[in-house]
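Running this now, will post back.
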Amino acid sequence: MRKSEIHAAESVACLDKALGELKDIWEEIGIPEDQRLQRTDAVHMHIKEEDGVTMLQLEKDLRTQVKMMLKEKSARQSELKSLIQQDQDLCDILCDDLFPIHPERVPSQQQLQNYRQHINTRNQERERRHAEFVGMKRQITVLMEDLEQHPDTSFEKDAVCEDEDAFCLSVENLSALKVLLHQLESRKAESGALCGSIRGRIEELWEMLQVPEEERESLMQNTRTKLQRLEELKEKNIERVIHTIRSEIVKFWEKCYYSPEQRQAFTPYHSDDLDEEVLREHELELERLKEDYAKHRELYDAVSTWSSNWTLYQELEKKATDPSRFNNRGGNLLKEEKQRVDLQKSLPKLEKSLKAQIDQWEAAHCKEFRVNGQLFLQYVEDQWDQHRMEKEREKQERQMKKMKQTEEDLLYGTTIRTPTKRRLAGTPTPGKTRKLISTSSMCNSTPNTTLRSICSSPSMRPPLSSSKVSYALSTTYFT
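Update: finished.
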């Protein structure tokens, strides 16, 4: 039997089994006969062959339908993914729950329509809450300036100092903001009433004590003079105070690994108009940085540890390729190599531990942890890539230098570049001993003979026998 016939038989068996199960279910739930016929006809309509259609045409139609359905599936899943991302962004802003839908299943058209409507509703709610927040923030800022009050709690700093788009527009936060606005309005009313009461009491005492008008005016003038003197003193010292605060801000920028873009975002730092408003903004920025560093100090210290170890590892790598390192004494070379190997093993472990800490931090704060404007893991990977590129560049430079030296040797001849081995003092070579002996024995010879003996060729040759020496002397004498 062919495989196609086997598959056809299996399909028929599965169909019979499914119809049998349907029949049992219909019996259990008590479906009437007419409904059974309708459902059976519906099944028959889906599996019966169309009249006048060939097998090839039927296969083509089925493939076309499958292609269209796959395209529809892909479109729905893409739209669902986009809607989920929009919903997630809105939930982060509104501090609300996601729309209840399974992200892996293929949604129906009705589910997508409901999801679109849900997103539109949330967008409208976000705009309403944002407008309400901006209005209350302006009122709170004006009231704090009138009361000469600075944000104390973290909530007040988030509401007044942070970016408007970064504030969580939850129902609880807006309610707390309304309470804060009401408190500030009450304080301003109380302060105004107190000022009016004090002013009225002073006037009553002036009238009661019959203080002359000249003395009253003199007192007011002294008060104005003191106020003006304090304002001038403040103007003189405000520049020094702002520069001191700026130095502190730079320190915390470095501790918190702020990128140049983040530093540039604090525009008052680059302002030349140093007034009270600029001073106040600097104080708020410094307080925010201190709070941020204290809250996440453990993570920042871990990143600082990695950075210091990485810097030390790079220095040891440079020393390992320096030829002058062999001149070190005291075992430093061995210590540095051991330290370099230890760092090479410990750095990946530290990076793995930091990744786990950063994942926990990002899950808790719903934002990315960045180092100098980059994701930490990307920052680490870039550092390693730069290190490898630098090593490769140094390797190529050494190869080029070696090739250049080889070309010079081939062109001009090889020269000895390594120092010769030094001989021990007081131990002359045998050749020199022989020369000294021959020189002393021939001290009575003629100058030419002595000169020839001393300036003889340095090539190795066996010593002359006594007979040959006497023969040479006699020959020289008679000559």
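The mean pLDDT is 76. More later if anyone needs it.
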